[in-house]
Amino acid sequence: MGPKFSTRLALGMIACFAPLSASAAFVSPTSWSRGIGGTTYQEWDVFSTNSGATPDVGNVNGNGTASLTETVSGSFITSGGNIYHAGAASSFTVTTPEADVTAPAPDHNVTAIVQIRSQGTELDYSSVLLNGIAAVDTAELGRIALGGFGGELVDSWFLFNIPYAAFGDGIPGVEDLTLTFNATGAHMSLDRLSIDTAIQPFGFYAEPNPVPEPASLALLGLGAITMLTRRRA
Ligand SMILES: [Ca+2]
Ligand SMILES: [Ca+2]
């Protein structure tokens, strides 16, 4: 008993809190409703191919159909329908058709939200680019420890601002938004992915970060530990 017991209790308390964030899942945009004009939504969960996979959970895109391909050879589909590579850092390209709106002026900008669920080896978070542009905001929606050598399941969120100059060419029609990302090493399993886009003529949507400030979360955890330690002392 004594301090050791308090520490164990505090750790238990943290474990009790953990499911709060661990149960977090993908979120819907708050700045626009899925399905309204100028927006697209596509989501994959059970992959049947690692080359040219089309969305199976959600597919609302008036410009065409999005497509996901693993570009390092040797990856395969797991029994659970994820894309896994045992021998190399897998690398992905996802193309999403977007309207190239040129009237009244070629100044339509795209706000995009990308969410990725990985298992095992994690994403190289700095590698996640849309049309070569890095995210303007990111969040970790959830993290769950998997048993054995499974590592962790991680849900991550990325917000992109893509100016017209980075995807339009002045010719009316459809242009691809190209998402690229890779794993930090072998043994990443791509479990789930979603892309929401919204185009508008002037500026970007101010989509809020879906996760509370890390500082306030840390304070909450620290407060719980201090409280418990005092009680037991
Ligand atoms: Ca065009
Ligand atoms: Ca899956």
Automatic annotation (TrEMBL):
<keyword id="KW-0732">Signal</keyword>
<dbReference type="InterPro" id="IPR013424">
    <property type="entry name" value="Ice-binding_C"/>
</dbReference>
<feature type="domain" description="Ice-binding protein C-terminal">
    <location>
        <begin position="210"/>
        <end position="232"/>
    </location>
</feature>
<dbReference type="Pfam" id="PF07589">
    <property type="entry name" value="PEP-CTERM"/>
</dbReference>
<feature type="signal peptide">
    <location>
        <begin position="1"/>
        <end position="24"/>
    </location>
</feature>
<protein>
    <recommendedName>
        <fullName>Ice-binding protein C-terminal domain-containing protein</fullName>
    </recommendedName>
</protein>
